[in-house]
Amino acid sequence: MNRPHLLLHICCGPCATTVIKRLKNEYKITGFFYNPNIFPLEEYQRRLESVKKLAQASKINILTDIYQHEAFLAAIRGWENEPEGGKRCEVCYRLRLSETALMAKKLGLGTVASTLTVGPNKKAEVINNIGRKVSLPLGLKFLAEDWKKKDGFKESVAISHLLGLYRQHYCGCEFSFNKKGENHKSFAL
Fold this sequence. Notes:
5 strands; alpha/beta
């Protein structure tokens, strides 16, 4: 069977479990871990290792980019105090999905998707709208799905536990971490 290629933006290993499981029979998946929002570097590395572990178990290739936290900070400048799920998050989604679309175009892949909508607090309509807007001008199709539906999040938790994947306790950036009443200074930087 000749499956079309798809570039899958992966925010973290746990969220990718459900999406890969649901897409692997229909698409030849290449994962793309581009998440300059993740803070601190040690957290980024933990999440990347989790993605690599899942990629090996799922038998998919993973592409990564260098850690570019300064690009994220520049993009969201002025939106630092936005509530979780607000404008700062939309800017962050656009940054990550734009880079994913550019990578898909560079690789000659016609379809893009993202694992971002697995999260129970992520607004699929916002993410999918951004995904379509950044993909269309490049001649790409964005696979707009709400992966948390049909128990997608619950399934991701179960698969992550089974595979021993690292499950983070905050979205990724220092602003989402601080909103949970914690302080990123507790990390060893």
